[in-house]
Design goal:
This protein has 14 helices and no strands. It has about 290 residues and is mainly α. The chain has a single domain, classed as ABC transporter involved in vitamin B12 uptake, BtuC (Orthogonal Bundle), CATH 1.10.3470. α3 runs parallel beside α8, α4 runs parallel beside α6 and α12 packs parallel to α14. The N and C termini lie far apart (about 55 Å).
Length: about 290
Amino acid sequence: MANRTGYLKSMGIFSVIDALQFEFMRNAVVAALFASMICGIIGSFVVVNRLVFLAGGIAHAAYGGIGIAFFFGIPYIYGTIGVSLAAAFLMTAVAVRAKNRSDTFIGVLWAVGMAMGVILLDLTPGYHADLMSYLFGSILAVPSADIWWMSGLGAVTLAVTIFYYRDILAISYDAEFAKLRGVPVNLLYFVFIALVAVSIVFIIRVVGLILVIALLTIPPYIAEKYVRSLMMMMILSVILSMLFNMTGLWVSYNYNLTSGATIIMVAATGFFLSLGVDMIRSFYRKTAK
């Protein structure tokens, strides 16, 4: 029994159980689970529709919202959501009307958002916020209020996805056919881009705006290769996101590492493992022929 106890302690199991006695750790676990659900669903839409660059533009433009929030003394959530939605709608409008020039416009808003955030933070009197927590995340500092926001966002995301699943499927794989069927393509497109923008704001709390795109895209990218439907891709993405988030949180807690960066490194490990599996499968298929 003593040997087993020592083994469990060496594995960090007891330390994690002890850590869950603290509210900040429970909040971190719940935030990771909600972020996993949101990333799995929204990330699948982003990957299938090739919107990774647009999502990256929204994430970096959101930094301008952080600067506005601190400069004017308003809650971080309101400032960041406002700027993220404005940037998302502008980028999407350009992407819909002028696809050939959309990457340039997205790049400009990307840079402007970051620059505006930096300047406003420089001008903020008595600014003492932890910049690193916004750039690289601070899941251990997620307040209870954000948990409620994330639960609401998760519920809305799930409801919209279930209700409009067939239309989302049509839009994702053949937008022209969807239009012929009478699907409000542009409206649903803007709705999901809005969900992407709001999702990014809350995931910033988990892994930071620098790393948020990795958490949105790595699980869906891996899942897409092993499933044959968008629904299963979303489900597997949620499961993989949970695995990466919880493993990263456990590793960061046990080895005193930055949680956001650790979560992304765990996800990146999964990404490269999946590439290795693909190479092995491809090699055996060639040799079998």
